[in-house]
Write a structure and sequence with these properties.
alpha/beta; 305 residues; twelve-stranded mixed β-sheet; single chain; globular
């Protein structure tokens, strides 16, 4: 898919090496097409890595998309050069009068805090409220999924006795939904989190539909507003080596770090990871873009409400 990305975004060259077709803004403006407008609120510490992971997945349909990156005014990231943020990201305040066909809100390393204690919670609440009327469909990932369910529907999170860390089997509960078109009976998804959602809180809320579940990892994917909101508790966007990097980073500084389960060949961290989630990740993002964004969004983007 021709993805329209900001000129000089590092992900462009990284993905070209993988034979993924992307175009910069200069080339895209020569095409007489109304591209889908997708905004990514990237809360992950390693911004460039997350940008590349998400753009890789968004590149798998024939639709042109105009990708924008949003940042928080109330938080300054520590692990990404300020020059990168200034060049490629805009504050929410600069974008709040715009409308978008789709939005992705990533996880964030703040899940051990109460929501109200997160320094940028007030700004997040404004963004969550804005997305309901300014975006056709929004994907909430990991912490953002928990935070979005808490803000919109009052669903609490609960601390886990130990980190849910590894690759876990998931089952589509409503396989007839377009989001699961082409899926097998089971699929896998990486998880890396210290908190969980509970089934009874989802099932007792008539506005929410539990659409995927895991015996090992619990609540997997929740849908609301007929697909205008999806809450994904894991990380289908992760690259093959992401859990490996996280494990090796943490075990060098702490003694209580366990190896990610169902991940390394023969459960040996000296071996390469076994990638089992990539095909379904591509399917889910393509289905989301096709069935819940492209086919639902108005041609006149100003009519999103």
């Amino acid at each position: 898919m021709p993805l329209r990305l900001p000129d000089k975004l590092p992900a462009i060259e990284l993905l070209k090496k993988e034979n993924i077709f992307v175009m910069d803004a200069t080339r895209a403006t020569s095409q007489d097409i109304r591209p889908l407008r997708i905004v990514i609120l990237n809360l992950m510490p390693l911004k460039i890595t997350t940008e590349t992971d998400l753009v890789r997945l968004l590149s798998n349909t024939p639709l042109q998309m105009d990708i924008s990156f949003m940042k928080l005014q109330s938080h300054t990231p520590k692990n990404t050069p300020i020059e990168h943020m200034l060049m490629f990201y805009k504050d929410f305040e600069e974008m709040k009068d715009e409308k978008f066909d789709g939005m992705i809100i990533t996880g964030a390393p703040v899940e051990n805090y109460e929501y109200e204690d997160v320094t940028y919670w007030e700004e997040m609440k404004r963004i969550f409220a804005w997305a309901k009327t300014h975006v056709t469909s929004t994907l909430y990932i990991c912490w953002a999924a928990q935070a979005g369910l808490y803000y919109h529907y009052g669903v609490p999170k609960y601390p886990l006795p130990k980190k849910k860390f590894g690759v876990f089997s998931q089952k589509p509960l409503l396989p007839q939904l377009p989001i699961f078109r082409g899926f097998d009976d089971m699929f896998t998804m990486p998880h890396s989190r210290h908190t969980e959602l509970r089934h009874e809180d989802i099932l007792s809320n008539p506005e929410l539909t539990l659409i995927a579940d895991s015996d090992e990892a619990g609540v997997s994917i929740v849908m609301a507003r007929g697909g205008r909101e999806f809450f994904i508790t894991g990380h289908l966007e992760y690259a093959p080596n992401t859990l490996d990097k996280e494990y090796k980073r943490d075990k060098d500084v702490r003694d209580d770090v366990e190896m990610p389960v169902n991940y390394y060949r023969d459960d040996n961290p000296d071996n390469e990871p076994v990638v089992t989630w990539r095909a379904h990740a591509n399917l889910l993002y393509s289905n989301w873009i096709n069935y819940y964004v492209y086919q639902e969004t108005p041609f006149d983007i100003s009519k999103i409400e």
